[in-house]
Amino acid sequence: MKTETISKKNGHSLKAFNVEDIGDDHLFTGLETPMKPNAFEMSNTEKKERISILFSEIMDVLGLDLNDDSLQGTPDRVAKMYVEEIFSGLDPKNKPKVALFDNKYQYNQMLVEKNITFYSNCEHHFVPIIGKAHIAYKSSGKVIGLSKLNRIVQYYAKRPQVQERLTNQIANELKTVLNTENVAVIIDAKHLCVSSRGIKDDTSTTVTTYYGGEFNTASKIAELQNYINN
Ligand SMILES: [Zn+2]
């Protein structure tokens, strides 16, 4: 079995992990999506051409007849879908630009945007993660357009992901743009790699949470849970 030592940013290294175990247990190695330094040297057009060639090879190895009318266009479709849609959140150019507004109404309680549906993909198996995100924040003086909360979720979801990292990436982005620690992110998602393969558990969902600043108290957490569950 293959083992690999994973280096942490501070220079210390974690004990050697089995890379297969990391994938099967859905562990993750850091807050940032692991990217190559030269990730954007290739144009999107080149990326689509390369992915199409490589995906047709996968289909060919599986024994599929690429001359069949139904299958012929699949490699191009998959390439386009990867680059322009489901993995478009890898490209910082697609990050939503967030405009802030003055908090004119002096609303200074929590704002909760709940049930934001998202589709992501598990980075260990490349199959869908389907879930709902609930976001809360307390204004530091500025407010954000509600649709932007949704867009921030979608941007980070459109990457190969691990749910814990998705949660933290959304929370970090909100803290940065809203200039406050007072943000909360709750994600409840179904992982198709758990329901359709492996352990084949069709009923379980995974919940991850981030409670920052004033949200990190038992009473605020209970208040938030109450809004989300009703
Ligand atoms: Zn998975």
Provide the CATH top-level class of the domain at 97-229.
Alpha Beta
The CATH topology of the domain at 97-229 is GTP Cyclohydrolase I, domain 2
Strand content: 15-25%
Question: What Rg, in angstroms, do the CA atoms define?
Answer: 20 Å
Distance, first to last CA: 48 Å
User: Number of DSSP helices?
Assistant: 8
Kindly summarize this structure in a few lines:
This protein is of the alpha+beta class and 230 residues long. The chain contains 8 helices and 9 strands.
Question: What key attributes describe this structure?
Answer:
230 residues; alpha+beta; GTP Cyclohydrolase I, domain 2; 5-stranded mixed sheet; two-stranded antiparallel sheet; 37% helix; globular; disordered N terminus; binds zinc ion
Describe the fold and architecture.
- This protein is of the alpha+beta class.
- It contains 8 helices and 9 strands.
- The chain has helices at 19-24, 44-61, 69-72, 74-86, 146-157, 163-178, 192-195, 218-229, and strands at 3-4, 17-18, 100-102, 111-122, 128-137, 142-144, 160-161, 183-191, 206-211.
- The protein has a 5-stranded mixed β-sheet. It has a two-stranded antiparallel sheet with strand order 1-2. A two-stranded antiparallel sheet has the order 3-6.
- Strand 4 and strand 5 (128-137) form a beta hairpin.
- It starts with a strand and ends with a helix.
- The relative contact order is 0.12.
- The structure holds zinc ion (ZN).
- The site of zinc ion has 6 residues, from loops.
- Zinc ion binds next to loops.
